Amino acid sequence: MNYISTRGAAPALSFTDTMLTGLARDGGLYVPETVPTMSAADIAALAGQSYEEIAFRVMRPFLGGTIPDDDFRGIIDRAYAGFDHPARAPLVQLAPNHFLLELFHGPTLAFKDFAMQLIGQLFQYELKRRDARVTIVGATSGDTGSAAIEAFKGLDNVDVFILFPHGRVSEVQRRQMTTPSESNVHALALDGHFDDCQARLKDMFNDFDFRDEVGLAGVNSINWARVLAQVVYYFSSAVSLGAPHRAVSFTVPTGNFGDIFAGYIAKKMGLPIDKLVIATNQNDILHRCLTTGGYKMSDVHPSISPSMDIQVSSNFERALFDAYDRDGKAVAQLMDELKAGGFTVSQGALDMLQATFASGRVSEEETLQTITQQRKTSGELLCPHSAVGVHVAEAHLGATPMITLATAHPAKFPDAVEKASGERPGLPPRMADLYERPERVTRVANDLTTLEALIRERRTN
Ligand SMILES: *Cc1c(COP(=O)(O)O)cnc(C)c1O
């Protein structure tokens, strides 16, 4: 079981090398050479198993024997021990044939914990085994950074530096990044926008001397191990609604296309998924592409569902690779065109994408209305991202059960939720003192030399 690049010009790697490498050297994203399948009997046998056991059975074939079974079980157990719901990803019912998959019971209250907690443990395991150290640097608009810090804090062999735009993340998000006291955690407030954070991160990866000197590693959403971790809850939820004997559909609030791509992998593995519905906010490049074939960049319009405010959707490249019959050259060509503003998907590729995905776009007003209305009808208090999903899902309800992914806890976005519902959602008890904990953060200029000097000096290696 090896991994190949979507641009066809980087060496194939094992699972653990793929995880430590992140982005392929040709600029592409790693995907499995072949996707392993599970038979109907294998899937039926998941019924009644714990989340951890399902995780083990679903992910194991992707490891290609790189990690012994007992070790992998230990990694999974440690990854999900910090979740505060015994089901890890519980399903609640919103309406006849409409279910909500609550993915916000992890340490930072967003679904990114599912992937980040697992790769924290995987990195720790693999780096110890190789007697290696890395410096993880990430850029965040909020949720990724807090999930990464929570996953890597206190681990040996790793320093974690997170760049976030000063003054432009929510208070809960900022505090989740600045209050951990472990010495290997470094929260950096950059004078600039999220795009500046991402640009400086890219500059660091392109500074090969610096990259090698500090052992730079990335854990952004293109890391294959993160996608893999997310495949698991598609299985656990579908099985609890009767798969493989009954098909289900999913609606996924989407930004970088990582979460919904995991659903696509679950389907390829044999899980009977009828529809996979992409839900976007007003930043709707994916919805436009699915309906017109044109993938054209436009400006980011800040919304009340900020974790989906993206201009380009990096993991979409993985879907394009399959839509173009795994032709790496064709994908590389599209990505060159994207640098100049956009591209048009071929008719054949568009047919494949439309056969696999449906899509919908939700306005700010509709998002707020959905929060208001769900509070009344089902009692569920939705975060704005989850509300985008629920709104789009409602247009796709039918005889097949629909599962909408709830990607964050409402308390992470209290202002929008209060505006829609009149209620200010409280933090779960284990975090109730978040607003009292001391913060530790370094404000930095938007300047590569300054940043690199700071990282050299601060890392505990
Ligand atoms: C990251 C995030 C998303 C988008 O997920 P992608 O995998 O980038 O599509 C949606 N909602 C929340 C709350 C998020 O943090």
The chain-level structural class is alpha/beta
Which fold name corresponds to the CATH topology of the domain at 91-107 and 227-421? Answer: Rossmann fold
Q: Which outline best applies?
A: globular
Quick one: CATH class of the domain at 91-107 and 227-421?
Alpha Beta
Low-confidence stretches: none
Count the DSSP helices.
19
- Estimated radius of gyration: 21 Å
Strand content: 15-25%
Question: What is the first-to-last residue Cα distance?
Answer: 33 Å
Q: What's the architecture of the domain at 91-107 and 227-421 in CATH terms?
A: 3-Layer(aba) Sandwich
* Helical residues, percent: 40-55%
Question: What's the mean pLDDT score?
Answer: 95
For the biggest sheet, the summary is:
6 strands, mixed
Distinct ligands: pyridoxal-5'-phosphate
Instruction: Work out the number of β strands.
Output: 15
Cross-sheet strand order for the largest sheet: 3-4-14-9-10-13
Please tell me about this protein's structure.
There is one protein chain. With 461 residues, the chain is an alpha/beta fold. The protein has a domain at 91-107 and 227-421: Rossmann fold (3-Layer(aba) Sandwich). The protein contains 19 helices and 15 strands. The protein has a 6-stranded mixed sheet, with helices on both faces. Strands 8-5-6-7-15 form a 5-stranded parallel sheet, sandwiched between helices. Strands 1-2 form a two-stranded antiparallel sheet. Strand 5 (134-139), helix 6 and strand 6 form a beta-alpha-beta unit. The longest helix is centred in the first third of the chain and has 19 residues, at 112-130. The radius of gyration is 21 Å and the shape is globular. Bound molecules: pyridoxal-5'-phosphate. Residues 110, 112, 143, 221, 253-259, 307-308, 385, 407-408 line the site of pyridoxal-5'-phosphate.
